[in-house]
Write a structure and sequence with these properties.
The chain has about 250 residues and is α/β, with parallel strands linked by helices. About 20% of the residues lie in helices and about 30% in strands. Strand 2 and strand 3 form a beta hairpin. The longest helix is centred in the middle third of the chain and has 17 residues. The N and C termini lie close together (about 10 Å).
Length: about 250
């Protein structure tokens, strides 16, 4: 689990996968136009910045006319107390890929932190963590048939009630909610993939219902990435098989 930082800092986790296609060269990470480190496949770097606008990018070549410090950068106004997960694009695109927390943390379980290069990025700050926000991840699940009639994206009355119960349970279980990650069910009972449009509509319906029941919209992420089970699981109703439920992580 990635530790939360204090409100006057923002945290960046920048990583490379062991992808089917990867560049053999190191990915040179620049922060605000200054060199930070060179990432190899299967490596990551973690660092903190002051909140506000920043420029980040990764480059695989540095020729005589190397324009790297200023072109094709990821520019963002980074918020205090937040952690951003960025993945190197292996196809030579300088801008990183923004990845949601639950997908990134699965990848980070199999890669290693790199710190063998001398950091020259002067805007990087020493990280400080907010221990009051550090909480064990909790897992909840709801049978998809409770939420939606077959083939429908409209929540049933039982589904709305189940999500109201879920939101209440999360608020009772956690002193402070830092993240709510919803793993959307994406196969039917026969194991067939559901249409992309239906998945998006269901994700929107689930998200809206959680927001309507006082979970902050900025903390809710929807994903279809399969995850290992967490240690503490609470089923809203009976626990269904993985293909027949949505799973919600909160911490």
């Amino acid at each position: 689990m990635t530790l939360p930082v204090v409100e006057n800092l923002t945290q960046i986790i920048y990583y490379r996968e062991h992808a089917e296609f990867t560049q053999t060269a190191g990915a040179n990470i620049y922060v605000d136009g200054q060199f930070h480190t060179s990432l190899l496949p299967g490596g990551y770097t973690a660092f903190c910045l002051k909140p506000g606008p920043h420029r980040l990018g990764a480059y695989f070549t540095q020729g005589a006319i190397y324009p790297g410090k200023s072109t094709h950068l990821y520019e963002a106004n980074l918020q205090g107390g937040q952690t951003y997960f960025l993945r190197v694009n292996e196809y030579g695109v300088t801008e990183p890929q923004a990845i949601d927390r639950i997908q990134a943390e699965v990848s980070l379980q199999t890669i290693f932190r790199q710190s063998h290069m001398l950091n020259r990025a002067s805007s990087i700050q020493a990280c400080a963590y907010d221990r009051d926000r550090e909480q064990e991840k909790r897992q909840y699940s709801i049978d998809i048939e409770v939420l939606f009639p077959p083939g429908s994206s409209a929540l049933s009355e039982a589904g709305r009630e189940a999500l109201r119960d879920l939101a209440l349970t999360i608020r009772q279980d956690l002193n402070r909610i830092n993240q709510v990650s919803v793993l959307n069910q994406f196969h039917d009972q026969q194991g067939n993939a559901l249409p992309e449009t239906l998945l998006k509509q269901r994700a929107k319906a689930i998200r809206n219902q959680l927001i309507n029941n006082a979970l902050p919209s900025s903390l809710i992420a929807i994903s279809s990435q399969l995850q290992p089970d967490a240690a503490h699981q609470t089923c809203i109703g009976e626990c269904a098989s993985p293909q027949q439920r949505i799973v919600v992580y909160a911490q």
